[in-house]
Amino acid sequence: MDEERALYIVRAGEAGAIERVLRDYSDKHRATFKFEPTDEDKRKKLCEGIFKVLIKDIPTTCQVSCLEVLRILSRDKKILVPVTTKENMQILLRLAKLNESDDSLEKVSEFPVIVESLKCLCNIVFNSQMAQQLSLELNLAAKLCNLLRKCKDRKFINDIKCFDLRLLFLLSLLHTDIRSQLRYELQGLPLLTQILESAFSIKWTDEYESAIDHNGPPLSPQETDCAIEALKALFNVTVDSWKVHKESDSHQFRVMAAVLRHCLLIVGPTEDKTEELHSNAVNLLSNVPVSCLDVLICPLTHEETAQEATTLDEVPSDKTAEKETVLKNNTMVYNGMNMEAIHVLLNFMEKRIDKGSSYREGLTPVLSLLTECSRAHRNIRKFLKDQVLPPLRDVTNRPEVGSTVRNKLVRLMTHVDLGVKQIAAEFLFVLCKERVDSLLKYTGYGNAAGLLAARGLLAGGRGDNWYSEDEDTDTEEYKNAKPNINLITGHLEEPMPNPIDEMTEEQKEYEAMKLVNMLDKLSREELLKPMGLKPDGTITPLEEALNQYSVIEETSSDTD
């Protein structure tokens, strides 16, 4: 009934009547996302009628009402096939000021029309494959970049930027060709980075360092939304950027990493918006070549260095770990480097662990990022080792029992999701400089067995990467307890009575043969398969392992 009345007025009424009836329709269906199939034909005709009205010379308020209803109707995929034509797309492009002939955005009264047109384009491009193909034909990505350049430094048109960026994100998500066009032809990387700089109001103090006002106001909701959309678009543009080939690329990625560092150190209007902002920053940092991530940490200024010296003198000498990370302004410092951004990433990771769900989507990106940073940058690894794996003092509890970051990560090493447990184990392994003995000290052999088996390190040793040698950090408490620590569980256990001490020799022999027969039965029924270690450290069926060792011995004897 609503569609019939609106269609009748759209076809025969004047602008004022059209505006009123469409405004009523919009108010009634603003939250409608599922439509009645029986009225599908009426909605198609209403869309066609609205496009015919939009090509006329009508007031701005009437244009907005038309576009609002079109945005609502474009949520229905079924009606978009007949109305998604090149002519209709061009009408929306003209209203969104996406034609090259539109040089500026001076008329504030037109801004609602531009925003609603962009919203319509977002829905239509997302829901219609025909619209996606027409977007390529009409070179929509280039037009969107031109619109961004017109408004990148003008904060009062954040809504235009936000939906321009959202449409750019959708295009780059749906078409891999557009990603390449944005990256190289349209210079999307510096353009989108500048959009982020503008949203964060960044003031540079050095080439890759920005001024951070810890007492400043949070980002506004509009600035936060713009930044999130820009981060998502940048992720698509840089998704294949694993290696830096040119100096200009390296510089641009370092600038972007510095902007993302600034992003991690500011907050949004709400806690949820801050987490969403930081989550997208983490995803984008995962695309930055690891050699460019050194800008996440920076040397202290002379003032901060003097302040650190004053603060450290106030800390008791027996608390050396605290002395390395305390400053009066809450700045995290390690070896004279500002570690605020890394500390934010560590806290973000712990919050994602505490959520207890969606580990693969929410946790693995930040864990992977911290792992690669630790592998490539010594200061980051040492700081994270200090925070996650401090020197052991109390070894009475199992490594997976407790509320510290170490306990939480060790619990993840036996998670049911293979990807989650692999990246958690890899992170701890890298913090231990890929040394098996160091990893076992913090996790126990049982928790680390999966990683060691996959790496062929069940017999011990270390990984393939080289790390600097550090001094021994074992505490006196750990050294005293070490002889009595259970290597499997990784904690100190009370001595257990030996059950065979009070057995006679006949009883011992009977129990031994009973065990042999049970194992033989399980093996013959293939419920249990004896395994052994190959010379390269990987596990294999016992017979195959013994054969390989026999071949090695024969070869050695022949050589002798």
UniProtKB/TrEMBL annotation:
Please cite one Gene Ontology biological process associated with this protein.
Answer: G protein-coupled receptor signaling pathway
Q: Name one GO cellular component term.
A: plasma membrane
Is Coiled coil one of the keywords UniProt gives this record?
no
Q: Which InterPro entries match?
A: ARM-like, ARM-type_fold, Chaperone_Ric-8_A/B, Gua_nucleotide_exch_fac_Ric8
Any Pfam family:
Ric8
Name where it mostly resides: cytoplasm
GO MF terms here are: G-protein alpha-subunit binding; guanyl-nucleotide exchange factor activity
Coiled coil residues, start to end:
none
Alphabetic keyword roster: Chaperone, Cytoplasm, Guanine-nucleotide releasing factor
| Location(s) in or outside the cell | Cytoplasm, Cell cortex
**Family statement drawn from the similarity comment of this UniProt entry:** Belongs to the synembryn family.
How would you summarize the oligomeric state and partners of this protein? Interacts with some GDP-bound G alpha proteins. Does not interact with G-alpha proteins when they are in complex with subunits beta and gamma.
Q: What does this protein do?
A: Chaperone that specifically binds and folds nascent G alpha proteins prior to G protein heterotrimer formation. Also acts as a guanine nucleotide exchange factor (GEF) for G alpha proteins by stimulating exchange of bound GDP for free GTP.
The name of this protein is: Synembryn
